[in-house]
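lol ok so funny story. i was supposed to be doing the assay writeup but got distracted and ended up predicting the structure for this chain instead. priorities right. anyway since i did it might as well share w the group, maybe its usefull for someone
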Amino acid sequence: MEIPRGATYTHIDTACGLIEVGGWRLITDPTFDAPGSTYRFGWGTSSVKTSRPALSPAQVGAVDAVLLSHDQHADNFDTAGRAFALEAPIILTTQAGAKRIEASDDEALAFGMTPGDSYALSDNRRPDVTITAVSARHRPARWPEFVSGPVIGFVIESEALTGGAIYITGDTLLTPEVHDAAKQFEVGTLIAHVGAASFPKVTRKARFTMSADDVAELAREGDVPLVIPVHTSGWSHLIEGTEALVSAFAERGIARRPTVPVPGVAIALS
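and the output, tada:
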């Protein structure tokens, strides 16, 4: 079989994006709700959605799998995104998320993963794709996990990816485990959840996702050639936009590495 080479990434909304690799279609953290509503995130926190998805579920069309970093926060899995995901053949997510999804819909197929677990997409028409769960920590180090709930990132590997694996961080702070994942896999593309998410009126200075400086440092130390920042805008709790990220990369002498996505426009990956 001749192996189709290359892949594309199309940003849709917040951390929601469509990855097409070797004929497979994967969607990350689906969010398709209209802007304007306030969502509760627990522990007294809330956020207003301000962005409109670049593509509708109908425009995206059928996918082969949903890569859901976590199901408990609406900026990664809103009402319309959930409805879209339930129509997919498989949802890859945390073990807790898989249990909740299958409990809410007995026809849904969700595969619960912990860091190190892998799931293979395989048929006789397309090159195999292996998706491995990696660690993510969506809260300050000293805070217990139940504050944010469990989160995972994903690494996508395939013969179709000539430039290296795709690493999707999920909502996380910069931790030793995130550094390890960037070094362990031959990463060609880093899809980084950024925004320095915070709720200053409730949690003061605590952050819940990486800052621009964090992602620039991760890309520099991991020598990642292509960085696509997502989760930078669209909600009131996302503090840092893409301007901060571009500046952080320039300060480290790696200004050419980030590619800021234009929603709805495909980016070619090697």
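The helical segments are 57-60, 79-86, 95-104, 176-184, 200-203, 212-222, 242-251. Residues 16 and 75 are 9 Å apart (CA to CA).
back to the writeup now i swear
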